[in-house]
Amino acid sequence: MLSLILFILLAYAWLLKPAQVVHGSGFLYKDIFLLAGQSNMAGRGGVVDEKWDRLVPPEIKPKPSILRFSAKLRWEEAAEPLHADIDVNKTCGVGPGLAFANVIRDKDSSIGVVGLVPCAVGGTNIHEWARGTHLYNQLVRRAMASLNEGGAIRAILWYQGESDTLSKSDAQSYKENLEKFIQNLLSDLNSPMIPIIQVALASGQGPFIETVREAQLGTDLPNVRCVDAKGLPLEVDNLHLTTPAQLTLGEMLADAFLNYFQGSIPITSNAPRR
Ligand SMILES: *[C@@H]1O[C@H](CO)[C@@H](O)[C@H](O)[C@H]1NC(C)=O
């Protein structure tokens, strides 16, 4: 009798063990990160005059342990441009996502397979991300679908606001709109404690950059942290981060995630990283 019970338990354990399944089919636990916002999250590193130079630094070359969730909701090995099938009307280049994934894996051995869920679309302002919009719904839908083959959403990386620097009223209402967006999103993901790491603007499309930056650096929500991209090198358009700048930003996001959210108690303030 005892050996029968033991056998059943062992059989269960075998059935439930995280299988070493080839990605794309079946269960594979992933540390999942959502990437959302506008062009600098989608990635324009190496893009000049709507042409990408195709230069991918060795640090972010594809590897089997870092996956991306395609527009068709399939896991595949992540390669730049990470947002090519999401931000489809623009020429995509290098963004911060792959650098982020590589650095968290290098610095924290408890991170296993990383699953990146690209959702950023260039030229979008905060109103276009409000609850119920196409971008918002797509973000929630892709986030939910990304969990189907195993894994947990570990954080949301958000870099947006350049388009909200064009009008004074957009810039002035940015803080309220951003906080509403974050609260709605966490509630619709049924996960109030998912960390959010946002990027304070390095550039903008209009004159009200400082107003938006103040809103970002002053976001007063639990589990929201901010890294500051100000001063990172920009392409000749003076709007988009270069490829080296995106590698630096990826590392800053990774350090923020590891410092504030890995194995630590929940954070309730939003001090800038530097
Ligand atoms: C691309 O452009 C089409 C046509 O204007 C539009 O319907 C679609 O929403 C755009 N997609 C993205 C991701 O910008």
UniProtKB/TrEMBL annotation:
Record keywords: Ubl conjugation included?
no
The molecular function terms of the Gene Ontology recorded here are:
hydrolase activity
Cite the InterPro entries for this sequence: Carb_Esterase_6, SASA, SGNH_hydro_sf
**Keyword Signal annotated:** yes
The organism's place on the tree of life at top rank: Eukaryota
Which key words are in the record?
Hydrolase, Signal
Instruction: Give all residue intervals belonging to the Sialate O-acetylesterase domain.
Output: 30-258
Endpoints of the signal sequence = 1-24
- Which PANTHER family is this protein grouped with? ESTERASE, PUTATIVE (DUF303)-RELATED
Could you tell me what this protein is called? Sialate O-acetylesterase domain-containing protein
What is the organism field in this record?
Nelumbo nucifera
Give the classification, highest ranks.
Eukaryota, Viridiplantae, Streptophyta, Embryophyta, Tracheophyta
